[in-house]
Amino acid sequence: IYFEIWRGDGSLLARSPSLRGRDLPREQLTAGKPRYRNVHLAAEDRGRAVQMTFTPAPEEDDERAKHKGRASKAAPDGTIVLARSRRDLDSTLRVLASSLLLAAAALAIGTAVAVAATVRRGLRPLHRLGREADAIGAAASLNHRFSSSKLPKELQPIYDRLNKLLERLEETFARERRFTSDVAHELRTPIAELRSLAEVALKWPDNATAEQNYRDTLGAASRMQSLVNSLLAIARCEAGVASSNASPVSLDEVLQDVWKPRAAAASARQLHADWDIHPGAVVHSDPVMLGALMENLVSNAVDYTPAGGRIAFRISTDSDGTTLAITNTCKGLEPADLPHLAEPFWRKDAARTGGLHCGLGLSLVAAYARAIGARLDLNLPAPDEFSASVYFAG
């Protein structure tokens, strides 16, 4: 232990022999508070020192001083500096630091191992998902569904969404396969007809006139061309290739122009047309696509309305937009049929009997509506009525 004591006047009162005549450092204290610092002791020994002030007791008490007739004077404060070697403290601190470093290293290694093990265990469901996904193919395994049993709740939404994606893909591929089959079926009939006409004309050239052969051949070729053009139009609209040049179009004028070529056929079948349109209904749309859309709607209404039936044309406008609705009497349609009406080649009658239509009319209408930014709604207002509405946003 090292110490030094100074009187209030700065003179040395006492010093420990261990200092060997050297002084311990001291400073002016603030408000008499103790001051702690590191100091150099003998040789290379480092120490820890505290400096504080004290008030020494007088040699005579106050009563005795008063008895002698003189007042006692308060002795000035003295200063003491006490120091001790840091060897034991430094040794303890080194052991503590080494222990903390070893503990930190062990904790870091243990944490890394635990995190790696936890991550591997947590990623096992994702690895299983990847292996299952690799085994899925478009040919026959789209009906596969990922099992969400024994899964963390955080991963269950991912599995649910993947299963819903597989459902949509399965439905899409099934629809594409049906579409390919339907295209082959629809083209097979006119191709077989063309071949038959050519074979008959070659085998019995004198039994049929060239004019009739050409007329029949032209009819079959026209049906094939119409089918191919319709399929191409649908594909272009769905791929976003069809260009839309929007301009103001009068709906009532386009509807009247589309109806005129079909008025005679409607009259021959005794179809009654009701008109509830107001001139001046203008929409901002592509005139060509809008005309093709309305031609298909009117053609479907005329061809599928039973003889003696009714077709109602209505154009209404409000603050939100303009609606074109064509309603006609029908037979055999049910609410469950509505989602399928816009599918290519879909018909209520499963047996394909040919005719003027091949099941692409409403598919074209739906494709054109998407291309020009309109909304197509199909519904059955009554059991014997079918309505197709096209909404144009204002």
Summarize the structure in short.
The chain has 394 residues and is an alpha+beta fold.
The percentage of residues in β strands lies in 15-25%
Biggest β-sheet: strands ordered side by side in the sheet: 2-1-5-4-3
Helix content: 40-55%
In whole angstroms, the N-to-C terminal distance is 97 Å
Task: Give a written overview of the molecule.
Helix 3 packs antiparallel against helix 4 and helix 5 runs parallel beside helix 6 (287-304). By secondary structure, this protein is an alpha+beta fold. It has helices at residues 62-67, 87-134, 156-203, 210-238, 251-268, 287-304, 361-372; strands at residues 2-6, 12-15, 35-40, 46-54, 78-85, 247-250, 272-276, 282-285, 310-317, 321-329, 375-382, 385-393. The strands form three sheets. It has a five-stranded antiparallel β-sheet. A five-stranded mixed β-sheet has the order 7-9-10-12-11. 45% of the residues lie in helices and 20% in strands. It is elongated and about 160 Å long. Mean pLDDT is 80; it is low at 350-355.
